[in-house]
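Anyone opening a protein record will find just a pair of labelled lines. The record below illustrates this layout.
***
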Amino acid sequence: MTDYKMNAEPGGYEAHGSALGMSRLVAAWHRRSAEQRAEAIKARGALEGRAGVIAGEGVVRPPAAQRIDTARTPDASALGIEGQEPGVEEVPINVPELLIPAAIITVAAEVPEGELVEAVMLPWFEIVKALGRDPNLLHQLEWRMVEELIAGAYTQDGWPDVILTSRSGDGGRDIIASKPGFGAIRFYDQVKAYSPGHPVPANDVRAIFGVVNLHQNVSKAVITTTASFAPGVYEEFKPVMPNRLELRDGSALRRWLLGLLPDRS
């Protein structure tokens, strides 16, 4: 397993063989997410205060006290379930040293649906390489990190427009991948970061397929899961696969990700 440690040059790092590498990468990702949430809360509070002054109240009233999540270090036995945090231990956000780069993707811009993904960063490749050695790693990642991993995969796979939607109010779409121009293609991908014993039920597939049918500019619905699909799902949706619906289970996801690694032969 690769362990990253900052070297003397700004933004640099060096690799060392260590089983701690992946846990440190995930911990750094949690720190970054916590800091982003804290910044969003502060920004919202500033906007609310400005709105109060504009309304003629004459005084800036801070928002009600809110708890800001601290950075989290995932528990080794945790299983990432979509919409839930894995078992974690809280640690302070202001860690004195940053052992690894925290981001696995870079964002080009904020758009109405969420964030426009620009590219993947080196830790994205290291996570995928680790998946080649240990398929169970998929079940140890927090659900939002899985979404970032898959959004980065679309970008790495040559999709020019990839949007990672907001954490809430996404309308059933976690990732919007588009290829504009003549014969444009647009996919809605719903990510289900489930544990191995939690298959995606048929009702979830019906829901996202219904969303796609309501949007004339969407070519296909994709459900990507770290687990599997419930019995009967493939048979029920066979008439619309693969043209209008794609079901990507954990094994297919892993094969796709590993196929996106640079050829080092």
Observations:
- The helical segments are 21-54, 122-133, 143-156, 202-213, 233-236, 250-259.
- Residues 2-76 form one domain.
- The chain has a mean pLDDT of 74.
- Residues 37 and 68 are 7 Å apart (CA to CA).
